[in-house]
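INFO batch 0412 | record 1 of 1 | parsing
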Amino acid sequence: MYLLILNEMKQNKFGELIFNESDVCDLLMSGREPASIKRMIVDDSVDIEQAIQFVERAPEFIKYSGRDDILTNIFDQQQQERWHMPEEYKTLDIAEYVLSLCKNEAELQRCGHELLLFQEKNLFNLLRYLKYLVDIMTENQVIWGVGRGSSVASYVLYKLGVHRIDSMFYNLEPEEFLR
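INFO prediction complete | emitting tokens
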């Protein structure tokens, strides 16, 4: 029943599902409330207060404004704030951590330059999450690729272990990734 609901639902331009009253009722009353749904974007047909009464652990309900003209960078920032990661990663001084991985002045200069670019784009949460992701994959012996695309131009991502391409060795400019 849950899969049928998802196939018929509306989506905004970011691929987020928009639940209507019928979708919410079907999902919450089915007794198979999926643990993965932490929040639901609902349209104006949903009475949030009434929906919350039916379940012990209600998801976070967010009213859909009907506006799909939100800027992508605002949407991305909102999503980053909702990422699951342990508190130790959320509070990690990622700049200090990355700089501590540097072995010489050239690496410090390159990482410092890139970190400023990441900071300008408000992407420190992304770096923290990538640190968490690499740690979890390493701990669970998950194998991932050596790197591809413009991400290999980032020496910071190399130092975090996201990819294995030394962008300084190949003279790849960080702006190629962070444009």
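INFO post-check: The beta strands are 10-11, 17-19, 39-42, 60-63.
INFO record closed
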